[in-house]
Amino acid sequence: MIAYPTGSEPRIALRSEVGATAGIQQQQELEFKRLFIENPVLILVEQGIKSVQWSGGACQIRAGEAIALAGGQSIDITNRIGADGCYRARWLAWDGGLIAAHANAHARQTVIRDALPIIGAPADFLAAFRQASDAIEDDRLPIEIARHRAAELLLWVGLHGGRFEQARDLTLAVKVRRVIGQDVGGEWSACAVASAFAISEATLRRKLADEGTSLSAILVDTRMTLALQLLQSTAQPVTQIALAVGYQTPSQFAVRFRDRFGFPPTSVRGHRRMADGEGRS
């Protein structure tokens, strides 16, 4: 079971105009199929191995290495534990304004369309990652300095071969995910979602079907993706996570989670919180 020192329980740090960051920790190998990456993100592996497969490619990222992932794609990820019996990584996502500013200033850089492995990165790159992460977590740091440090990390990514670009031509499915993402635990009916786009329910269903999906599939996947993130990167009890993603009981949530990922929520945390409802899946 994962144990955290007092006062160091994990959380997802968000800072307006800068970005978001969090750690990931697992104690058993897990595979995540068709994991949707909504926004560009950089993942640094600290212990263990991350295997990533995307449309047209695959790679393994070891401790001390990183991978930059473009937004708007679904990938397969396997996190394998290291010699100490644990997998640890940290991710960082930038504010869209910072990504746009970097793209405008470095238009000639190759756009990262899917993934950019960063192998053999110098110590300065790792330091820049930590400084950017710290700048997001510490809101006492002046916002100008925090944005500068996050922007510096984008420069490091550029030096390793690419830049991010915000998706422009979004599919309706992605747009629906973003609407649902504003209140993942809310009661989302076809009527409510269709109204958000000023179209009829029939048109909503038809257009999503043309893209090979449905509102119910998008709703469940959006909820389970957030639930996975909360399980990996926070210490919130499963009962609280279940409510946050729209389920009234841990057992109902656990069934949906297992259906989506092939294992129960307990697997993500290594049975760390049996008393809060994880063990009833």
Automatic annotation (TrEMBL):
<dbReference type="InterPro" id="IPR009057">
    <property type="entry name" value="Homeodomain-like_sf"/>
</dbReference>
<dbReference type="InterPro" id="IPR018062">
    <property type="entry name" value="HTH_AraC-typ_CS"/>
</dbReference>
<feature type="domain" description="HTH araC/xylS-type">
    <location>
        <begin position="174"/>
        <end position="271"/>
    </location>
</feature>
<dbReference type="GO" id="GO:0000976">
    <property type="term" value="F:transcription cis-regulatory region binding"/>
</dbReference>
<keyword id="KW-0805">Transcription regulation</keyword>
<dbReference type="GO" id="GO:0003700">
    <property type="term" value="F:DNA-binding transcription factor activity"/>
</dbReference>
<protein>
    <submittedName>
        <fullName>Helix-turn-helix domain-containing protein</fullName>
    </submittedName>
</protein>
<dbReference type="InterPro" id="IPR018060">
    <property type="entry name" value="HTH_AraC"/>
</dbReference>
<keyword id="KW-0804">Transcription</keyword>
<dbReference type="Pfam" id="PF12833">
    <property type="entry name" value="HTH_18"/>
</dbReference>
<keyword id="KW-0238">DNA-binding</keyword>
<dbReference type="GO" id="GO:0005829">
    <property type="term" value="C:cytosol"/>
</dbReference>
